[in-house]
Amino acid sequence: MSIIIVGLNHKTAPVEIREKLSFSENALQEAYGKLLADPLIQGCVIISTCNRTEIYAHVSDTEHGIENIRNFFKQKSGVDLALIKKYTYVHIQNKAVQHLFKVAAGLDSMLLGETQILGQVRTAYQSAHKHESTGKVINNLFKQAVTVGKRVRTETGIDQHAVSISYAAVEMAKQLFGNLIGKSVLVIGAGKMSELTAKHLVANGVSGVIVSNRSFERAIYLADQFKGKAVKFNELYNYLGSADIVISCTAATHYVVKSKGIRKVLTENPGKKIMMIDIAVPRDIEPEVGKLPGVSLYDIDALQNVIDNNLMERKRAAVQAEAIIEESVEEFAHWLGSQYVIPTVAALKKLGNEIKQKELERAFNRLGELSDHDQKVIKAMANSIVNQLLHAPVTNLKEYALTDKGPLYNETLDTLFRLDKVRETGVNPEHMHDRPVSVQALVRG
């Protein structure tokens, strides 16, 4: 038994391959049905986002489990098996656990430390659980992954440092004003970047939104999203006095906000502070505006400096996160190892005791009358032989249980000693030699 991952992401496969191997919510029920029809798969979870598709599975045969999941991808997508092997990666046991924990912590994302992936991991697990496709090992694995993802964010603050233009703009606004509650924003231009920045500002407390755009219809559309007000482009300066924050991102080839107009606004509103964020290239706001009293002007380069500094902070936090993940992988490995080892050790000791008792009865019957002392000596010798014989395999199995080879050694012992029969039926060990072990079974184990 082992945990495996077969998957692909933005680092290993182009979008035209990723989209063919992705799963919609509606396709999951059928997908889980096909995966669980495979007797090798004891439980599984599918994570499917725009940047990754991964199948996490608990399988009874590692090599054939990987092969079967790749074939499942082939049947689902129509992509040639050779291409699937080229673009997918495989992780087994501790490496698989480590990979999932990194995914949940945001360390394997396109944007280091991004927060959305933790919710996606949680949702994927909940969906799999709803489709009854998990099982004890997968349940514990994903519960631990969500816990690790939360812990990394809480203890390292990896997601607290803005690494996008829109988030950086919000961070700088907070630094200037302290609190954004009750502040108002004037959005010049109604493109995606302006919309995203306004969205983040509103989420952080900004209450008033004014939108000005050359296309008044587009201004109305964007303003409606924030329950704000749309104004015509030629009325722009009339509303600058009521704004605390100005975001400008148009496609203009010349300055649309000039120092002369801003100077008039400041004269009419003495003591006013305005934060102006120019994320357009070419720039929308005349550089001289930043020299006016009360105006804080930031262009795309200033925001990029913030992003670069914050990215360094995230990389430092990622080092802390790696330590948390390493500790959590070891903790999970101990739990998983115990799941493999405890039944095997118990069955091995049971087998040893059954053989010992059988042979003691046979010996006593042959020896006839023995004194209590002689019986105790023989029993002690039999106990010693069994204990010494089992000591090395039991000790080594417990050690190997914490490594990637744990399942292999566990399955080997199960196969060599037919421990499944001991556990299930308590079969008489005297008759176990009647059914030979096949070479194929040993190789497969």
TrEMBL record:
It is an enzyme of class 1 (oxidoreductase). SUPFAM superfamilies: Glutamyl tRNA-reductase catalytic, N-terminal domain, Glutamyl tRNA-reductase dimerization domain, NAD(P)-binding Rossmann-fold domains. The record marks 99 as: Important for activity. Keywords: NADP, Oxidoreductase, Porphyrin biosynthesis. Residues 171-306 form the Quinate/shikimate 5-dehydrogenase/glutamyl-tRNA reductase domain. One of its GO terms (molecular function) is glutamyl-tRNA reductase activity. Its EC number is 1.2.1.70. InterPro entries: 4pyrrol_synth_GluRdtase (IPR000343), 4pyrrol_synth_GluRdtase_dimer (IPR015896), 4pyrrol_synth_GluRdtase_N (IPR015895), GluRdtase_CS (IPR018214), GluRdtase_dimer_dom_sf (IPR036453), GluRdtase_N_sf (IPR036343), NAD(P)-bd_dom_sf (IPR036291), Shikm_DH/Glu-tRNA_Rdtase (IPR006151). GO terms for biological process: protoporphyrinogen IX biosynthetic process from glutamate. Possesses an unusual extended V-shaped dimeric structure with each monomer consisting of three distinct domains arranged along a curved 'spinal' alpha-helix. The N-terminal catalytic domain specifically recognizes the glutamate moiety of the substrate. The second domain is the NADPH-binding domain, and the third C-terminal domain is responsible for dimerization. During catalysis, the active site Cys acts as a nucleophile attacking the alpha-carbonyl group of tRNA-bound glutamate with the formation of a thioester intermediate between enzyme and glutamate, and the concomitant release of tRNA(Glu). The thioester intermediate is finally reduced by direct hydride transfer from NADPH, to form the product GSA. HAMAP family: Glu_tRNA_reductase. PANTHER family: GLUTAMYL-TRNA REDUCTASE. This is Glutamyl-tRNA reductase. It comes from Desulfotruncus arcticus DSM 17038.
